[in-house]
Design goal:
The complex is a heterodimer. Chain A is an all-alpha fold. Chain A has five helices and two strands. In chain A, helix 1 (about 10-35) packs across helix 4 and helix 2 crosses helix 3 (about 80-110). Chain A is elongated and about 50 Å long. The mean pLDDT of chain A is about 95. Classes of the chains: A mainly alpha, B alpha+beta. Chains A and B meet through helix 1, helix 2 and helix 4 of A and helix 1, helix 2 and helix 7 of B.
């Protein structure tokens, strides 16, 4: 595959925008279902589990794509603290998109629930049933979701900052198309 | 002081370009706050429901927030095969024996309530199928539920909150609630003559909510179910003792297993599936799906039912929830109660802890 200099590789861009939509939907589904007693609770919960596993699989593929196609370098004149923030937040996003589904899966396992992805598809438990482990993992799932949402907000703000204020080609490198930096 | 026009224009444009950098993430944050209920103070959430249970009965760390007083049981379900034509669930396969971990309880959030304080007993069951799928159900010894919606249930809880001055619910508030909720009539008619039973073993337990059975063609059948006691009620009056149900159960199980018949009622077209206050007519087709056999009991603080959330929406392939609005509310509220009590069990920071001057909290 040919990679345009200064651009993310096409598979990386496709995975980025697909997963952006899925993860954002997942965050809203997650906080929405635990704060609802209506029919919404039931159908959001039905989406939440298979979507989480889909995100986990996509995250693994994406990590492989990232290692195969290194991203374009950040602008040379970007101040060091901003470079550090960019790299740290990207790796935090990768860590969270892999950790969140695993913590959710482990949490249901610890709670003794069958991990059902559909009416009939069941995943095996990945930790033994334990009320203490359930409580810790359930709280962890919620706190990591908040961290993921805050990291997303920072990522979104930074993307807009690069695109609108610095206009340094960083946003264009993920948007694709024919924009020049 | 005036600035050159070009510089002002530049600054103005730069300010405008900053606006989306701040406003777009802020809009996402607001939408997230709304979805999560933090910015929707009037929405009925699981947290508000469970807080109301705590307001009514106090906080008893480690215990369920409702049906707090109970006991674990275990045994199995023996399928008759008669339900297999209507549901592909493995639990209904002819001759199938499925292990069950259950729990008998009385309603209310007080784990020290006298057994005769309410005329209702409950039976919760978890069937673990050989394929690893589960069927969880929570049933009550009454034929209809007082209300049809989570909002009405919340209003009922609020009306029943004890007055701090008397320690009892305000009769005027309860009367106002029932006047505003005529759908409670069938339940109240039942409650007028209902007496606290002397035994869990002689009561029958209704599933109350409608569900759907899904057969091998994918056809859906609206159903309700009931566990019908095979032990006859002997008309015994409950002893003058706050904790007789547990002792009665142990005494009976020491003599042999206890049995219930799982009776499934099939709806006719038009029978309400979204209203637990309305029973279906008595002439509906019923099937005896099999026999529940309970063999052993254990205290709930150490027994196998302790860490089970009897969420009635945990269902195997072949059983599905109906459009009854109480089912998602039960699922959401039970999950909140489960997280609170498991957090207390784990002694997590922020979780409620037993206080030294209240009754012992060691039993669950």
């Amino acid at each position: 595959m040919k990679t345009t200099p200064g651009m993310f590789a096409l598979p990386a861009r496709i995975l980025h925008w697909l997963m952006a939509a899925l993860i954002l939907a997942m965050l809203f589904i997650g906080v929405g279902m635990v704060a609802s007693v209506s029919e919404r609770h039931a159908w959001l919960l039905r989406i939440h589990k298979p979507l989480g596993i889909a995100i986990l699989l996509l995250a693994v593929v994406r990590l492989a794509v990232r290692l195969r196609h290194p991203p374009p370098p950040l602008p040379a004149d970007l101040p060091a603290p901003q470079k550090l923030a960019a790299h740290a937040s990207h790796w935090l996003l990768y860590a969270l998109m892999i950790a969140m589904p695993l913590v959710g899966w482990a949490m249901l396992s610890a709670g003794g629930y069958p991990v059902m992805l559909s009416e009939s598809l069941r995943l095996p438990p990945i930790v033994p049933a334990s009320a203490t482990a359930f409580a810790i993992l359930r709280h962890l799932h919620g706190w990591l979701a908040m961290l993921l949402f805050l990291t997303f907000l920072a990522h979104l703000g930074a993307a807009l900052y690069h695109g609108l204020i610095r206009r340094d080609g960083v946003l264009a490198s993920m948007l694709g198309g024919t924009r020049k930096s | 002081m005036t600035q050159p026009v070009s510089s002002r224009k530049y600054r103005h444009g730069r300010w405008l370009r900053w606006a989306p950098v701040v406003a777009v993430p802020a809009a996402f944050a607001l939408a997230f706050g709304y979805a999560g209920g933090w910015l929707a103070p009037h929405r009925l959430t699981p947290k508000r429901l469970i807080d109301q249970f705590q307001a009514n009965a106090g906080v008893h760390p480690g215990y369920r927030r409702n049906h707090a007083k109970g006991v674990c049981v275990s045994g199995y379900f023996q399928s008759s095969g008669q339900a297999a034509a209507y549901s592909v669930a493995q639990v209904f396969t002819p001759g199938q024996r499925t292990p069950v971990v259950g729990r008998f309880a009385i309603p209310g959030g007080n784990p020290y309530a006298p057994d005769s304080s309410v005329p209702i007993r409950s039976m919760a069951l978890r069937f673990t199928q050989a394929d690893g799928q589960q069927w969880r159900t929570g049933m009550n010894s009454m034929p209809v539920f007082p209300v049809a919606t989570p909002q009405a249930f919340y209003a009922q809880l609020q009306a029943g909150q004890p007055d701090p001055a008397t320690g009892k619910p305000d009769p005027a508030k309860l009367a106002a609630f029932f006047a505003a909720h005529p759908e409670t009539a069938a339940f109240r008619a039942w409650a007028r003559t209902a007496k606290p039973s002397a035994s869990f073993a002689t009561d029958s337990y209704w599933g109350l909510n409608a569900f759907e059975f899904v057969d091998s063609d994918g056809t859906r059948h609206a159903v309700r179910w009931q566990m019908v006691a095979q032990a006859a009620a002997d008309g015994a009056t409950p002893p003058d003792n706050p904790d007789y149900l547990d002792a009665d159960l142990r005494r009976r199980l020491a003599q042999g297993p206890l049995r219930w018949t799982l009776r499934v009622t099939l709806a006719n077209p038009g029978d309400p599936t979204d209203d637990a206050t309305r029973a279906w007519p008595a002439d509906r087709t019923t099937i005896d799906a099999g026999t529940l056999v309970l063999q052993a009991t254990e205290a709930q603080d150490s027994g196998p039912c302790r860490d089970i959330n009897y969420d009635p929406t945990v269902l195997p392939d072949g059983i599905a929830i109906s459009d009854d609005p109480l089912l998602p509310a039960r699922s959401a509220a039970y999950a909140d109660s489960y997280l609170r009590r498991t957090s207390e069990e784990a002694h997590l920071p922020g979780a409620a802890r037993p206080s030294a001057n209240t009754q012992p909290e060691a039993r669950r």
